[in-house]
Amino acid sequence: MSWYSHWLRLFRDRANNLQPKVHAMLPAELIALEDRYGAHNYAPLDVVVERAAGAWVYDTAGLRYLDFLAAYSAVNQGHCHPAIYEAMLAQAKKVTLTSRAFRNDQLPLLYRDLHEMTGYAMALPMNSGAEAVETALKAARKWGEAVKGIAAGEAEIVVASNNFHGRTIAIVGFSSEEQYRRGFGPFPAGFREVPFGDIEALRGAITAKTCAFLVEPIQGEAGIIVPPEGYLSEAAAICRERNVLLMADEIQSGLGRTGKLFACMHEGVTPDVMIIGKALSGGFYPVSAVLSSRAVLGVFSPGDHGSTFGGNPLACAIARAALRVIVDEDLPARSASLGEYALNYMKGLRSPYIVEVRGKGLWIGIELNRPARPFCEALEQRGVLCKETHERVIRLAPPLIISKADLEWGLEQVRAVLEDGPDARNEAVAELAGTTAAGK
pTM for the whole thing? Predict the structure, then answer.
């Protein structure tokens, strides 16, 4: 019997209830299944999430945890926001996918909403953040040839050291992180790297062949690295002087995370190209987009670029609802207010492990003098979920809808772990982290 025939028979047997009923799996069993059949390209904390609401997630045993990561800012609006959920259900009952071979009634409305919210003349929707970055790279190169007059195949893009823009071959090719590159070469040419925050290095790297400067306004994966004040505004001025596109990757920093709609707004900068994703979906569905002028996105002709799922009606309906939540609940303002409180609280800690606390809005990096993973594991035991990055940095990025009381409780758990150490006995675990779903 072939593997397909075996699988088909097994599927039919289960559908007909001919197999014995499978017991509810324990977390350890689910983890073992994942480790056995899944590629090991992640090292997650061993909490198995079954459901979530707002700022809280619940594991398969009913224990609750305060989410201090928000899926890398994809759930700024909180888990399973009811308004986005209802929009998804309503659209899913009508039509979910048409491909771009045909038009649908939701894409034009998303275009309009993005224009009215951001001021950009055009948008090009994709799915993942990495796809949106690749779209921006293609747009910049084509603009460089068609508009700026750079010779074919000669366009260059300047990038910043310690960048993180995704995991595609082109993107990891210009990463300065060795692990992201190891084993994946050869890489596409045409990228120049400069130190993040060094305005003179940027100035010196731009040549007649430079078409764009791609930068994160705040570097997330690198550890919530905030550039020197004035860096973005000076970079924007240099790009204008040299006829170079300023392309801002706001996939993590955008849509309210830093206390403004976009992080670039802290310096009054409007990039030539804006790349957004994550919270554009509210955590329900992969949605990303590139926003720019007609002069830039207008270089694309039919057949130049595309995506079967990009701009599908389900994604567009979800994105429209996600944007409405950001505006209606004024999430940037919440992030600014709660973020100021959280940053001041963290900077006031007296811990032998802390090297630096930095951030903007509800996006905080705590750099330690030793590996951060044990601290994250200790926080999990206290009922708070967060994740390390670059080995020695703890990221704090709760959903922007988090209440002040919940934020205070979570920060108190962080304080306890950082001041007492990750191995300190926690007498309150059962009371704080062990609350059942019924008890919340």
Answer: 0.93
